[in-house]
Structure formats: C-alpha cells, structure tokens
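Appendix B, example 12.
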Amino acid sequence: MSAIARNMQPGGGFGNLDRIAALLKLDVVALISFDQVQNAGATGWSFFYWTGIGAYVVEGDQYDILTSVETTVFDIKSRRLLMRAGGISNIKGAATMVGFSERAREARTRGFDEALREMVDKLHSEVKSFRERAPKDPNIRLILPPGYNPDAVRTTP
C-alpha cells in the first residue's frame, strides 16, 4: 500500500488533502472526476425480434449515454477554488439486440473522449484566465519554478 493510500481516510475531504499536501509538499491540487450514465431500452421496432432474424437486422434497442468530466483546482491551505473546467457529452444511438453491447461500449468510450476533450479545452482557457487575474489578486502569490516559462505555447500532437 502506498504512503498516499495509507494517509487517506473515508469521508476525509479536505482532511485527506491536508495530509497528502504535507506528505508531498503541495500547495495546490487538481481533482478530476467523471460520471457516466447509460439509459437503454427497446424501441417500437423491437417486436421484429420475434422473427429471429430481426435480432440481427433491426435496430430495436436504443441507448442514451451522458458523460461528465470535471477538473477543479484548489489552494489546499485556504480551501479556495482557483479554477474549474468541465466537459459533457450526450450520445444517443440504436443497435440490434445482438450488436447492442458492442455499440453501447463504443458509444461510452466515444462519450468519455468527447467530454474529456471539451474539459481539456476549457481547462486551457481557465489557466489562461487565471494567469491574467492572479497577479491582480492580493490573496494569490504565484511562485514559479526556475526556468518555467508561463508564456510557452502548448502544442497538441
């Protein structure tokens, strides 16, 4: 068991963050969460499944997948929320009874990718905004590591 895991308490909230911050010498922490919900059901076309061949040909099952990914950045000592960025994806589709599991799995993966991409784009905007407002906020003191260039352009592969 890692030192971090040993320092975590159920329901610990900021208490857990305080312990981890002391262990790793952190001032700020980014927490990333995600949630994904899938609703599925039969459409009016599913009665064709009774024909046997219908289960392979007719897209009589539908799915609706909602995915949410969020990053929050906190100053641990003050418990102040410094920035937040979220991404959401909602994918709807239909499949045959036989192909439902595979199509729904692909849609869940695509939904997570879409929500994550949206969250990352928003997080870049939030970081840029934070860089602009932080020097004007007397409650924020930025200490950048030697050699760090905040104006460096991030390239995406």
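The chain has a mean pLDDT of 81. Residues 28-136 form one domain.
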